[in-house]
Amino acid sequence: MYIYIYIYISFLRAPQTYGQPFVGTDSGPRLLREGGLATMLTQLGWRVEDIADLDFSLHEMQESANPANARNCALVGHASNILADVVETKIKEGLFPLILGGDHSVAIGSLTGILRARPNTGIIWVDAHADLNIPETSGSGNMHGMPLGLLMDHPDGAYDFSKLPGFDFLVDGPRISPEQLVYVGLRDVDPTERLWIKDLGIKAFTMTDVDNYGIGQVMSKALDHLKGRPLHLSYDIDSVDPADAPATGTRVRGGLTYREAHFVGEIIARSGSLASADIVEVNPSLSDDDGANETVELGLQLITSFMGKSII
Q1: Is pLDDT at 71 greater than 60 in this prediction?
Q2: Which pLDDT tens digit goes with each residue over 93-121?
Q3: Which position among 66, 77, 92, 141 has the lowest Cβ density within 10 Å, counted as fewest Cβ atoms?
Q4: Is 127 a catalytic residue?
């Protein structure tokens, strides 16, 4: 078993909004920081490196750099390249990278950096959606639904990044093997994604599985599947039921309850194998003030759960 004992954590604020159609996800990192995240984590014993927001601006772009079915791909690729380099560097410096999104397209960068530094990493993807599309299968063209699809090592060949403007840095980049990935909380999966999950043999726990087995058994099975690997947790706030997380862009009813959502983080922290994490898709512009504050507070509490806070 990998046991990671960190003292230092690095906040990587990744204010990405171009992977989806709504304004507001770029304010998520700032609101989490202003909500007192650094203080919460120092109270848990962490020493925090809090650097400025990563600068994802790209001022010169050709219109041809945005294919219709990969919206804003040049901007997303540019940001992903920056984030990948920073994440890789922080890991090699011995820090725990905590990426604060931004929409879920930030995972293209965070996973690339993580896999460069630790190719054997196991990925726990907590999300209502599978994010396993590629431009050729996506119904929307929004790149926050593609991070796993683009990075997955398919039997018929990895994705050809030479045809995707802004993604040259991934032409010879790392790929995810299907056995490295476990889904938790799926409930809105596209037809092609469903086929690929089955054909690739990806371990996937839907909300039906959570109802059937209970979140305790689901997480036990998930951790057992990834045993022996350092873990990366990618936590999309829309995995939680909209009753508790209304300020997000792709709400789907019937998600994780408040306590189930916390249990996911608590049990991963207890495993001793968590080595990196991201939390994404907090968007205060998509709810009223009360809903926005509730979602930000939930994000803060979930982070403290997977970073080691326990009831006793």
Answers
A1: yes
A2: 999 999 999 999 999 999 999 999 999 99
A3: 92
A4: yes
* Average pLDDT value for residue range 65-70: 76
Domain coordinates of the chain in residue numbers?
8-306
Query: Residue 87 above 70 pLDDT?
Result: yes
What is the reported pTM?
A: 0.95
* CA angle, 219 then 87 then 95, to 5°: 75
Q: What's the CA gap between 152 and 146, in Å, rounded? A: 10
Residue type, 217: Q
236 annotated to bind ligand: yes
| Contacts of 29 by beta carbon, 8 Å cutoff, 6+ apart | 13, 14, 15, 53, 100, 101, 102
Q: Would the annotation count 278 as a binding residue?
A: no
**At residue 248, does pLDDT exceed 60?**
yes
Question: Would you state the pLDDT for residue 63?
Answer: 45
User: How confident is the model at residue 1, as a pLDDT?
Assistant: 45
Q: Is 232 a catalytic residue?
A: no
Is 8-306 in CATH node 3.40.800.10?
yes
Q: Is 129 annotated as a binding residue?
A: yes
154 is catalytic: no
